[in-house]
Amino acid sequence: MAVTDDIVATYRSPARVMRSVLEGERHEARALAYLLAAVFVIHIAQWPGMSRAAFLEPDVPLAQRMFAAFLAVLAAVPVFYGLAGLSHLALRAFGGKGSYFAARIVLFWALLAITPLMLFQGLVAAFSGPGAALTLTGVAVFAVFLWFWITGLRVAEFGAAR
Predict the structure, then answer these.
(1) Comparing C-alpha atoms, which of 70, 99, 78, 69 is closest to residue 87?
(2) Following CA atoms 132, 83, 31, 44 in sequence, which dihedral angle do they give, to the nearest 10 degrees?
């Protein structure tokens, strides 16, 4: 299946897709590809909101905002590796039987799977700006991310069926 098909299927059945993703080839290049694709799309998702901010506050040019945002998402890459490791260690204390690789794949896939929602959040940031709509959209995106990540961790660490 194509990655885009798997992303759409994740919204219907995250556990089934996560099992399929975990059964794929076990090499770090695949995990890194998921993470870099997610980081790239998340960066693109920020462009509409940055464009609005640059128009309303022209003292900081759009190119400067975009470069700073790119450095910020790039700097988050090691943080995601650390977060995946910590999640594996925490679940290992509760009897988890997964691996560090599985914890990375689960986290990176959850990030990649929410990129369509991140693109939507970028549009909300551009059209409505800061406010209740953007806050609610951000909360919804984070809740879906947690749903995908926790479901994936259950599958990876405990072999949970649901």
Answers:
(1) 99
(2) 30
Cα Rg of the chain (Å, integer): 17
Are 17 and 6 in contact by the 8 Å Cβ rule? The answer is yes
pTM confidence score: 0.91
Which pair of tokens denotes residue 15?
Answer: 């556990």
- pLDDT for 79-131, tens place per residue? 999 999 999 999 999 998 989 999 999 999 999 999 999 999 999 999 998 99
Q: For residues 105 and 10, is the Cβ–Cβ distance under 8 A?
A: no
Residue labelled with tokens 């977060």: 83
3-state secondary structure string across the chain: CCHHHHHHHHHHCHHHHHHHHHCCCCCHHHHHHHHHHHHHHHHHHCHHHHHHHHHHCCCCCHHHHHHHHHHHHHHHHHHHHHHHHHHHHHHHCCCCCCCHHHHHHHHHHHHHHCHHHHHHHHHHHHHHCCCHHHHHHHHHHHHHHHHHHHHHHHHHHHCCCC
What span, in angstroms and rounded, lies between the C-alpha atoms of 133 and 49?
13
Average pLDDT over the chain reads 93
Neighbouring C-beta atoms of residue 123, cutoff 10 Å = 13
